[in-house]
């Protein structure tokens, strides 16, 4: 009877076999205790993005008035660095100081939270101002394009408005646009609309 040589019975160790042995011999960790992402350091790109965000916050912080900055809960080092910026001359030195401010913000959690709250409030106010401006622009466009129909609707919302004054502004603005003249009356119409809006919300 023919027998295979002993070498034929040997099982070759494949990479999968090694992985299986390693898995079986390693201690078992429950799935709810496995947090591989916590062991990984942040990537270089993530660190760079965070530092750029902090630098942008530092620049916005320096744009605030002294009274607004005084109300912020900044640590001593951060507050001293903010005060120091006004004495720095030269664009390169200023950019280096902004990077230093970004690092100080990163080291001062309370100061960072305070700055973010201030900037968030400023952004919300800016968004409201833009929406208000666009609303007044739409009213002006409607008055110039629709005439009496839009004017009646405006008067219904603002009964205190001077109708004759509005009519004169509208006619003059329409004439300026037709003659390709500077929009002086259109600007005056916008200012009057803003006055009406402020009076109605005051």
Describe the secondary structure blueprint for this structure.
Blueprint: H1 15-25, H2 44-62, H3 66-70, H4 76-85, H5 91-107, H6 109-146, H7 148-157, H8 163-178, H9 184-201
Q: Overview of this structure, please?
A:
The protein is mostly helical. Among the domains are: 75 residues, Diphtheria Toxin Repressor, domain 2 (Orthogonal Bundle), CATH 1.10.60.30; 55 residues, Diphtheria Toxin Repressor, domain 2 (Orthogonal Bundle). Helices cover 71% and strands 0% of the residues. The chain has nine helices and no strands. It is elongated, with a radius of gyration of 34 Å.
* Low-pLDDT segments, ≥5 res: 11-26
Mean pLDDT: 81
Number of helices: 9
Major sheet, described briefly? none
Number of strands: 0
Attribute tags:
Diphtheria Toxin Repressor, domain 2, elongated, mainly alpha, 9 helices, 0% strand
Give a quick summary of the entry.
It is built from nine helices and no strands. The chain has 202 residues and is mostly helical.
């Amino acid at each position: 009877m023919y027998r295979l040589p002993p070498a034929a019975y040997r099982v070759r160790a494949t990479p999968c076999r090694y992985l299986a042995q390693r898995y079986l011999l390693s201690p078992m960790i429950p799935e709810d205790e496995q947090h591989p992402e916590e062991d990984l350091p942040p990537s270089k790109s993530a660190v760079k993005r965070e530092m750029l965000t902090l630098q942008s916050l530092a620049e916005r912080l320096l744009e605030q008035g002294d009274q607004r900055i005084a109300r912020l809960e900044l640590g001593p080092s951060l507050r001293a660095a903010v005060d120091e910026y006004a004495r720095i001359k030269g664009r390169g030195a200023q950019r280096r100081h902004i990077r230093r401010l970004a690092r100080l913000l990163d080291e001062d959690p309370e100061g960072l939270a305070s700055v973010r709250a201030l900037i968030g409030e400023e952004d919300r106010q800016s968004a409201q101002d833009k929406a208000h401006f666009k609303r007044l622009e739409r009213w002006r466009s409607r008055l110039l394009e629709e005439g009496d129909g839009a004017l009646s609707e405006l008067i219904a919302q603002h009964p205190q408005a001077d109708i004759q004054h509005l009519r004169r502004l509208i006619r003059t603005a329409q004439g300026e646009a037709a003659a390709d003249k500077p929009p002086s009356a259109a600007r005056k119409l916008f200012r009057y609309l803003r006055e009406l809006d402020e009076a109605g919300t005051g």
